[in-house]
Specification:
By secondary structure, the chain is α/β, with parallel strands linked by helices. It has two domains: about 5-200, Rossmann fold (3-Layer(aba) Sandwich), CATH 3.40.50; about 215-400, Rossmann fold. The chain has 18 helices and 14 strands. The protein has helices at about 5-25, 60-65, 65-75, 85-95, 110-120, 135-145, 155-165, 165-175, 185-195, 215-225, 240-255, 270-280, 310-315, 335, 350-360, 370-380, 385-400, 405-410, and strands at about 50-55, 80-85, 100-105, 125-130, 150-155, 180, 200, 230-240, 260-265, 285, 300, 315-320, 340-345, 365. It is globular.
């Protein structure tokens, strides 16, 4: 596919994109805020010496935290601009960085919108997190003399097959990047096969993300609210359809006094999950109630943002969602970092290396299906020695793999 055909397709898809914003706004009104930014219309300029980092949603924004802080420390005379694609990513940026960074939505990948974005902010360098390849924006950056890097890059086999279908367009975009820092050797090989030129293995920046002291203190508070002696199972970053599977598995396992904490991946689903629990006749409370959990409460809905480390610190065992269904899984490193035994489902292709490493290190186990998940939870809760061994293994695993941020800083030049 040529860039001309690609651009034509974007115009044809524009009505769908606008309808998509309206549709998503039914549950998340924030989708209709700052709409002009998606077309390169921004209310203000920034001073010169801007470092631009694109982190599309929640996971990428959190992953960028060590890099953002390192760049701020190394280049205090520069201002960080974070661009996002979703309201939840933008809000996560607010929660993590406050006013220490600027933020906006990345425009749709029209050539004219990309040029307006670059003229408005005049970045000295651009950094894309993980798997962001926007052909017109990359071309416009190259034409404007702005070096752009793809860092913490991951490329699953499934994603690589998709990019291969538009091989010419992908090769052109990748060849214009100033450099790529891949998470693993497999990621680097797939990117090189797609046409990337300067690819280094720099590691996974998510290993460098540390739990803030105040969030760990909140974890202690939550644990006291949950009940210090009560078994607590956390279902973290769950996706649509998984909550039903998990609740069925726990009903079959019939673990006495178990408190289940469910934290949906997407905040617009908080009410949906609460309704699902209510339909089953289970007493539940929401984290937003901000009060101790009653002894007859069976489920807690984690309807808060930016507190995942606290949820991990407050549980005995954590399941990391997006993995019971073929969705690719979510990041399990936060759980490992605070020493919580981790369970994942069969589908972890978006985090294959980190998951494989955690399992091999003894920090995580894989459940083949929901039924096995229930059995694994029951077994782990009944074996404190195994939980302790997994806890120690998780801490060692994350400590041994830190250092990607420094390698990424060495890659970025302007």
């Amino acid at each position: 596919m040529s860039r001309v055909l690609y651009s034509l397709m974007l115009y044809l898809l524009l009505p769908w994109a606008l309808l998509h914003l309206v549709w998503r706004a039914r549950k998340q009104p924030a989708y209709l805020e700052h709409v002009g930014e998606r077309f390169g219309i921004f209310p203000h300029k920034m001073p010169s010496r801007v470092i631009w980092i694109h982190a599309v949603s929640v996971g990428e924004t959190r992953a960028a935290e060590p890099l953002v802080k390192a760049l701020q420390a190394r280049h205090p005379e520069h201002r960080i601009l974070l661009s996002h694609g979703t309201p939840t990513g933008r809000q996560t940026g607010v929660d993590l960085y406050g006013d220490s960074v600027e933020r906006c939505y990345l425009p749709y990948d029209f050539a004219w919108a990309s040029r307006r974005f670059l003229r408005r902010f005049r970045p000295v360098v651009g950094v894309f997190m993980e798997t962001e390849i926007w052909p017109n924006l990359i071309r416009a950056s190259a034409d404007a003399g702005v070096p752009v890097y793809l860092v913490n890059a991951r490329m699953s086999e499934k994603s690589a097959r998709g990019y291969q279908r538009v091989g010419g367009l992908t090769r052109e975009a990748l060849s214009k990047l100033s450099g790529i820092g891949a998470q693993t050797e497999r990621d680097a090989q797939r990117l090189a096969k797609l046409g990337a030129r300067d690819v280094r293995v720099t590691g996974n920046i998510k290993f460098d993300r540390l739990a803030p002291a105040e969030i760990l203190a909140l974890g202690v508070t939550l644990r006291n609210w949950f009940g210090a002696q009560r078994p607590v199972f956390l279902a973290a970053s769950t996706r649509d359809g998984e909550e039903t599977m998990i609740l069925n598995a726990l009903a079959d396992a019939a673990i006495p006094e178990l408190l289940t904490v469910i934290v949906p991946r997407h905040p617009q689903r908080f009410d949906e999950v609460a309704a699902l629990v209510k339909q089953r006749g289970l007493k539940f409370q929401s984290r937003s109630e901000n009060r101790p959990i009653e002894t007859d409460t069976r489920v807690v809905i984690g309807d808060s943002m930016g507190e995942m480390f606290a949820y991990y610190a407050a549980c005995d065992i954590a399941f990391v969602g997006g993995s019971l269904l073929p969705l690719g899984g979510q990041n399990l490193l936060e759980a490992c970092a605070v020493g919580r035994p981790v369970i994942v489902g069969p589908h972890t292709f978006n985090f294959e290396e980190a998951t494989r490493g955690a399992i091999e290190a003894g920090a995580a186990v894989r459940a083949a299906d929901a039924g096995e998940l229930g059995n694994t939870i029951s077994q782990l809760l009944g074996d404190s020695n195994r939980r302790l061994a997994m806890s120690d293994a998780g801490k060692r695993f994350t400590e041994e793999h830190r250092g990607a941020t420094e390698k990424t800083l060495d890659l970025i030049r302007w």
